[in-house]
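Hey, resending since the last one bounced:
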Amino acid sequence: MKKRKLPIGGVQTFRDVRRDYDVYVDKTMHIYNLATSYKTVFLARPRRFGKSLLCSTIDSLFRCEKELFEGLAISGTDWEWKEHPVIHLEFGAENFTRDGVKRLISSIDRQLDVACSSYEVSIPDSGSISDKFARVIIELSKKVSTVVVIVDEYDNPLLNTLNLPELNEELRNELKGFYSVLKQCDQYLRFTFVTGVTKFSQISMFSGFNQPKDISMMPDYCDICGITQEELEECFAPEIEAFAPRHGGREKYLERLKSYYDGYNFTRVRKPVYNTYGLLNHLDESGEFAPYWSRSGEPSFARKYLEAKEVDIVDIESEEMVAGDFGDYRDDTITIFPLLYQAGYLTIADYDDTTGLYRLCYPNTEVRQSLAEFLSKSYSNADIRIGRSTSAKLVKSLLDGRPEVFMDLLKQYMSKVDYSLSSKITEHYFEFAASNIINMLGLECRNEVHTATGRMDAVIFAGAYIYVFEFKVDKPVGAALRQLEKKDYAALFAGSGKKVMEIGVVFSREERNIVGWEVLGE
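The structure tokens again:
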């Protein structure tokens, strides 16, 4: 197969994708539905999920660059190909931690000047940036037509300064006045599209804004960003055909792709999508499985939150939330689980119609690995990394059914972890520390697995083996074994066809490490 040119490496301009690259995953029908149904729209998605390309596509559509849309879904509709002036603002690349308000005003001023220059409109510099924004909208509407406003990563100034409350408030107040212009100039606007990682509540940024239609969790738009299974198999058929033999054939390759990069779900209806950035880089790297998304940089706002708050993340895979908790933030009420959801580390696993609760979990192997490494940096002063040889030995020991090797290596790793919060060393804390290392290796480790007889502390799935762990702190190992025997956790996996090993582990507060372990029945 001749290698096709895929839009990776930060390509976010629709015009470039259509002219210079071999693949475009068509999302124009979604755009048509939005632009013909609503006047103001808001979309929240994690970073590197295609929001900027979506904004650029909307930009080109309203600039009436019709030739770029030939052959796409929207070209077969009754779309009115009429030019509208576009004001396209982007805040994702700026750092607002120093001279935040001054930098914000400068950035907006510069981008408004670009819009004026594009349509040969002159606006004298006077008054506030909000006044200038209003005058630009009015003048553009007079000269051309009703105006389209696109704001990409609108919330970056606020997320960028989460750990600087005074500056954060100053930025919030400035943005509140700026966005109030959209309400004041409603008669001059054709369409407004705003993206971000999360949504701040009415008493914050959106209080002066025409309340947008929030499509973030609407089933109709769950795949407006990301790549569905159908789109993967249709648009990337040549790559799948080329790489499948290396991974055991088409069926096994698609299954591994799904496990590693798929799984993002943004609505109560189950329709998962692949992370665009990770999948495209995998295909461009000749089918090499790697955590490309996490390598592109961790979300600084999540790190800042973890540094500023005391966070308990033990129950991360069993967290439940109502829809409003996902990101309708009221200034200082941001909490860790919605933040991890918005950052892309968690996604919707299930929805209960009766209670209206959503259950969160990791989307896929790439994210599970990435979050474990990210949290490892946050919870360890040593910024621990496991050497390749130790990593290989840990994985092999579990795959080979040799818990004695695994426990010895795990003990070595645990000796390097910084337990400065010694008062918090509980069974739960150890569960996290142990599962963290397993997740970093790319194996699946579940905490707090509930059964009819009780709750398993941790379960590791490794090839032909399933390991069930019972952790105790400052107690005899026999106490852990008796609980395993009494609860008969292994019965849950009786029909799996895999060998189940139940292991009792004892951790010492004083020694801050594993001091004993034993396999039930041996």
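The radius of gyration is 26 Å.

Sorry for the duplicate.
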